[in-house]
Amino acid sequence: MSGRPVPTEISDLPYAEDLRPFSMEQLHDDPHEGVHFDGGGFDRVHLTGARFIESAFTSARWSGGSLRRCRFTDVWLHTVRVTGTDIAESVWLDSSIVDSVFAGAASFDCEVRRVVFSSCKLDGVNFRASRMDDVVFEDCVLTDVDFGGASLSRVSFPGSSLRKVHLAKAKLREVDLRGAVDLDLTSGFESLAGAIVTRGQLIALAPALAASTGISVRDE
């Protein structure tokens, strides 16, 4: 995913010409394939286990409700807002999420593979015990995001701010933190094995790393 340009317009999607407008009468259809969810609010909607394939979401708002165990394959989200929604145990494959906001979302035990988050804000999102492979957070702001117990492989954060991020008991493999413009970890310093950082980041993290391993630093 990181080597491919992120679609910024719906016309950039390879399946753009095949998309058909969504209507509320189709809400509980399954699967949702080749559907364009354009605008509108989905308040307290429950679509547990639904499947979305080669579909687009633009300017849509999801508040409350449940998308638990849903499967999103080759979908594109643009200017979408998801607040207080249960999307735990969902699967995201080969997808792009652009200029969108996730706040207070339960996203634990998710599978996220070959997904790009671009210019997104994630606030209070719970990714505990999730599995992420080949995921890019590009120019994003992650605040109080919890990766506790998650497995992250080939994940990168170019241009992103990580603020009060939790990594307790996470397992990292080739996680590239070098491009992060802010790196503020609240927990999980012991889990940084498998991460790639710059020399400057390592120096900034040194006091917390020392404290987490019980090292006392004294000049006298």
In a few lines, what is going on in this structure?
The chain has 220 residues and is mainly β. It contains 1 helix and 22 strands.
Characterise the protein shown here:
The protein is mainly β and 220 residues long. It has a single domain, classed as Pectate Lyase C-like (3 Solenoid). It is 6% helix and 40% strand. Strands 1, 2, 3, 5, 6, 8, 9, 11, 13, 15, 17 and 19 form a twelve-stranded parallel sheet that branches. InterPro entries: 5peptide_repeat, Pentapeptide-BTB/POZ_domain.
Topology:
Elements: E1 20-21, E2 32-33, E3 35-38, E4 41-43, E5 51-53, E6 56-58, E7 61-63, E8 71-73, E9 76-78, E10 81-83, E11 91-98, E12 101-103, E13 111-118, E14 121-123, E15 131-138, E16 141-143, E17 151-156, E18 161-166, E19 171-173, E20 175-176, E21 182-187, E22 195-196, H1 199-212
Parallel strand pairs: 1-3, 2-5, 3-6, 4-7, 5-8, 6-9, 7-10, 8-11, 9-11, 10-12, 11-13, 12-14, 13-15, 14-16, 15-17, 16-18, 17-19, 18-21, 20-22
Key descriptive features of the protein:
Pectate Lyase C-like; 12-stranded parallel sheet; 22 strands; 8-stranded parallel sheet; mainly beta; 220 residues; single chain; 1 helix; elongated
